[in-house]
Amino acid sequence: MVSQRVLNLNRLGLVLVVFVVVLGAYTRLVDAGLGCPDWPGCYGHLKWPDTTEEVERAEKLFPEFPVDHAKTWPEMVHRYFAGVLLLVVLALTVIAWRDNPPNKIREISTALLILIICQAAFGAWTVTLKLWPQIVTLHLMGGFATFSLLWVLYLRQGGGRPLWLAQAQQLNLRRHAQVALALVIAQIVLGGWVASNYAALACADFPTCYGSYAPPMDFAAGFNIFQHVGPNYLGGLLDNEARIAIHWTHRLGALLVMVAVAALAFRLWSTNRFLATLTFTLLAFQLMLGILNVVWSLPLGIATAHNAFGALLLLAMVTVNFAPAADAADMQARN
């Protein structure tokens, strides 16, 4: 029997994680990753320094990081939401173990709690290691993984019924769905590497890059995970050919995702038209937002939406792979 308390906390967690993921993207895009040079506070404050006296004292403590209010508040608000999410998942896990719900709810909630604790550590390292791109990318992936695991937990409790997929095995979709999910995850990792290395504008035109389909690229430098980081990584340290290699690889990945996910949506049509239509729509919007990021030089709203739709497309693939099988009556009612 589903625990109503766990389900309610699960819903609250899903709402909070949306804010955490979007605020995380916004913080990164406005270069506020080091808006607070310490952790978990901000210049030694629980909030952030806002009076003249507090700012003066903060800048004496951190003379290499002048206070910029346009960057302190996004960073701290992101931390507040992440902290509340941690408390919600902690409560969810405790109640799940007490209520003993079915469908491995306890195990999933425990894994979720461990993941969020790791996320807190990555958040701290993002600041203390001064935006080291490997940590920033892992922190992004942790956020998307948290969103996905909360969604799986919700599906296991009967949530999102209109999205449920009928027996994937009967239509031989399992392998296709797994490949599509793997490609979407890989593309998100590449997107994180693009963002953490400031390579989003390495190519300023589309579909070519500086008028060429084979621009000069340095893959060795672009994908060197042992790269040296200077005093901090704000703005990136790679040369343009290395950034082009990262950017161009992300574009090629988008082509693979487009083919795999569009084909999956087409095959889903006979089983679940709602999920098929939603998947194709999310894919189309994500591709459009990616193109607009290039041709419009990374406008803040479009870039933030690109992160959000990437998360939603991932959830669609998670749904195809992990949602409970719908029975015949459910299918008939939907289609």
**CA-atom Rg in angstroms:** 21 Å
Mean pLDDT metric: 90
Question: How far is it from the N-terminal to the C-terminal residue, by CA?
Answer: 28 Å
What percent of residues are in strands?
under 5%
User: How helical, in percent, are the residues?
Assistant: 55-70%
What's the SSE pattern?
Answer: HHHHHHHHHHH
Please report the number of helical segments. 11
The dominant shape is: flat
- Give the uncertain stretches in residue-range form: 327-335
Q: How many domains is the backbone divided into?
A: 2
Please tally the β strands and state the result: 0
Which class of secondary structure composition applies to the elements? mainly alpha
Describe this structure in a few short sentences.
Helix content is 67%, strand content 0%. It has eleven helices and no strands.
Q: Would you give an account of this structure?
A:
The chain has helices at residues 4-29, 52-61, 69-99, 105-128, 133-156, 174-196, 219-222, 240-268, 273-295, 300-322, 328-334. By secondary structure, it is an all-alpha fold. It has two domains: 1-159, no CATH class; 163-335, no CATH class. The two termini are 28 Å apart. 41% of the residues are buried. The model is unreliable at 327-335 (pLDDT under 50).
Task: Give the key terms.
335 residues; mainly alpha; 2 domains
Topology of this structure?
Layout: H1 4-29, H2 52-61, H3 69-99, H4 105-128, H5 133-156, H6 174-196, H7 219-222, H8 240-268, H9 273-295, H10 300-322, H11 328-334
Helix pairs in contact: 1-3, 1-5, 1-10, 3-4, 4-5, 5-6, 5-10, 6-8, 6-10, 8-9, 9-10
